[in-house]
Amino acid sequence: MKSRIGIGYDIHRLVEGRKLFLGGVEIPFIKGLLGHSDGDALLHSICDALLGALSAGDIGSHFPDTDPKYQGVSSAILLEKVVELVKMRKFSINNIDTVVIAQEPILAPFKEKIAQNVAQILNISKDCVSVKAKTNEGLGEVGEKLAIACYAVAALEAEE
Ligand code: MG
Q1: If you average pLDDT over residues 116-140, what whole number do you get?
Q2: Which domains are seen in the chain, by residue range?
């Protein structure tokens, strides 16, 4: 069976006056991620991992941040469009592994809910989605609470 893997990375600035969305879940916090869309860096990294596995470009080429159509859009909608592309190319998602790097807020209480929500968007079983959360040990922009960064890896299998 033909299998493919892809990697995705994203980072967004944390700013006041925005809601914080990670994996499509609203996390109670005094700041949120700045972005043309809702700034959901986790869903963006998953989009790029899936697009990477397909060798189908990146999130910026599919959903340009100069396009007013995507202003304030829920990133779940972008990910759903990428999942449609995966299906069109006759692949299915085997599993997704992710890392969210945030100094604040503490994400451990939300990991399960985020994994559940991502699995729902991807239309796969929750045990095929892994969400790991860590701090950046106070180092760099993420450690200084100026941003949240995310990595994702996607594994696809060609459909029979
Ligand atoms: Mg992004």
Answers
A1: 98
A2: 3-158 (3.30.1330.50)
